[in-house]
Design brief:
By secondary structure, this protein is mostly beta strands. The protein has no helices and 9 strands. The termini are far apart.
Length: 95
């Protein structure tokens, strides 16, 4: 996957576009990072964390708002025999 600004596209090993989506995925805002946490794509955005299913990536499954919070850190647990895990560490921003 290649991401620039607020758009992502799937590419194959040679850099060609994959036909998973009709065109591209448009995120709600600029994406700082995108992770595949099976079966979800997780986009880290300035104001939220967006979750999208790999099988229908144009639709937002869940949006975790970071209003009054700051994403301090996160960890991803990849598991070959079970579901992957995502852990978020948030802190409250000053009032």
């Amino acid at each position: 996957m290649i991401t620039r600004e607020d758009r992502s596209v799937f590419v194959d090993m040679k850099g060609g576009l994959k036909r998973i989506t009709n065109h591209y995925i448009k995120w709600s805002d600029k994406v700082s990072q995108v992770h595949l946490i099976s079966p979800y794509l997780v986009g880290i955005l300035p104001t939220c964390v967006e979750f999208r299913c790999v099988f229908n990536p144009k639709k937002v499954v869940q949006r975790l708002s970071l209003k009054n919070s700051k994403l301090e850190s996160y960890a991803i647990g990849y598991n070959l025999t079970d579901i992957d895990s995502l852990y978020l560490i948030l802190s409250k921003q000053g009032s």
